[in-house]
UniProtKB/TrEMBL annotation:
Matches recorded under InterPro entries: BNR_rpt, WD40/YVTN_repeat-like_dom_sf
Stored Pfam families: BNR
Protein name as catalogued: Sortilin N-terminal domain-containing protein
Keywords: Signal
Biased composition (Polar residues): 42-57, 202-211
Signal peptide: 1-24
Stretches the record annotates as Disordered: 31-57, 202-225
Source species, domain of life: Bacteria
Stretches with biased composition (Basic and acidic residues): 212-225
């Protein structure tokens, strides 16, 4: 009898804990009024953001509630010409901010601090927004607990919670609408082998169904995700067509689905090893599509030889049926930023950063024009030598995130003239 009462008590405590977490996640927090500048005693200082409350009709009240904070940003994503996200983790709490005026002011759209984040989320891996209002954040399971999926449909004013049954590493997330999306989790099981589990939602993340899996060692059915190789990314171009990139025995591979993830097959051959004999190691990104028609896209591929890296690109104009390789006429990259890949806004228009100089191409990387040395970048790179990420959202507007890992500081910079001039946001 005593054992039965003990089990009942444990179950009751667990239920209360879950209810408290759900209440915290859905609670709308009001921003502090006239709060003094926040100082992070762990050394996570650098970027200064002007934070305002969520948009409302009371402009005077919003102006009075404006305050500034210093925080360390670890990633960002531009959503459109005016709006973007930026975030970091402080004391295991995710600090997520949104701007709709090109960084002049920011709104705190962070989920509850009750949801702890042991690592910084990366866009496309564990955080994704399909538009300004609809976003998802995946927090891997901790201590044997389920993987948590946070979702918002009101721009971060409130967050709701669901979970995935397994606690493997979250490798990729992709959505094609506010309702339809996928999450991929992986677990390394041996040399060159990786269990892969794909989950799909068709109701915006309220519920998730486990689809194809490669973790059943006793079956080998046609259409399941291959256990061979290590996943490097996943993206869906529409509700049916998806792509999973991987490195398989040292070779870039692409797997494709045309039924929403039910069945997978090896994509068309795009990689010729004979053309890269000098390369020791490769990495390949998931396809990045241009525009809503989901026909043209590109994948970046890095080739490592010793301490230097060169980048190439594979481009498609038929939705991923076929891929054409392009060699980028750029110098070999060395040093702390050697893994920074070029970025492309269209099949022809791209940008690259090498040794503090911005390069621009309008012919798919065949030729590059070097912009004049930016005095702003030159000065900032002395204190923030590491480039975390670069993104262009239009031919004129783009962001760069730089950091100093030792000092635990970062800065977010913006260009409004296509990369020639930069300023700190």
């Amino acid at each position: 009898m005593r054992l039965q009462w003990k089990k009942i008590a444990q179950t009751a405590m667990l239920s209360i804990g879950i209810m408290m977490l759900l209440v915290a996640c859905t609670k709308t927090e009001q921003p502090p009024v006239a709060e003094p500048q926040e100082q992070d005693d762990s050394g996570n200082v650098g970027q200064t953001l002007t934070v305002v409350p969520p948009a409302n009709n009371n402009t005077e009240a919003a102006e009075m509630a404006k305050y500034q904070i210093q925080t360390r940003l670890t990633d960002f994503q531009l959503i459109n010409d005016n709006g973007g996200l930026a975030w970091g983790v402080t004391r295991n709490a995710l600090r997520l901010y949104y701007t709709q005026d090109q960084g002049k002011t920011w709104t705190n759209i962070s989920p509850s601090e009750n949801v702890q984040f042991p690592a910084n989320p990366k866009y496309g891996e564990s955080i994704y927004f399909v538009d300004r209002m609809h976003g998802w954040i995946v927090r891997e399971g901790m201590g044997g607990t389920d993987t948590i999926v946070l979702r918002t449909n009101n721009g971060g004013v409130s967050w709701s919670l669901s979970s995935l049954s397994k606690t493997d590493k979250v490798t990729a997330i992709s959505f094609v609408s506010p309702e339809k999306g996928w999450v991929l989790t992986t677990l390394d099981t041996g040399i060159g082998k990786q269990d892969k589990n794909l989950y799909r939602t068709q109701d915006g993340g309220t519920t998730w169904e486990r689809m194809t899996s490669s973790d059943d060692k006793d079956k080998s059915q046609t259409g399941e995700i291959s256990r061979r190789g290590y996943t490097t990314g996943m993206t869906f171009s529409d509700s049916k067509h998806g792509f999973l990139s991987a490195i398989e025995f040292g070779t870039p591979k692409l797997y494709v689905t045309s039924d929403g993830g039910e069945q997978w097959r090896t994509g068309s051959s795009f990689f010729d090893r004979d053309k890269f004999k000098a390369c020791g190691n490769f990495t390949i990104s998931a396809p990045q599509f241009f525009g809503r028609e989901a026909k043209s896209a590109w994948m970046s591929m890095s080739c490592a030889s010793g301490e230097s890296i060169t980048f190439s690109g594979f481009f498609t104009a038929d939705g991923g049926v076929s891929w054409k390789p392009y060699s980028f006429n750029l110098d070999k990259q060395t040093g702390i930023n050697r893994n920074l890949a070029p970025v492309f806004l269209s099949p022809s228009e791209g940008w690259a950063m090498q040794k503090g100089i911005m390069y621009y191409s309008k012919d798919t990387g065949k030729t590059w024009t070097a912009y004049p040395t930016s005095s702003v970048l030159e000065k900032i790179f002395k204190d923030y030598p590491e480039i975390v990420k670069m993104q262009m959202v239009s031919p004129k507007l783009g962001w760069i995130l730089v950091e100093n890992t030792d000092a635990k500081r970062s800065l977010l910079l913006q260009t409004v003239d296509g990369g020639e001039h930069w300023k700190v946001l």
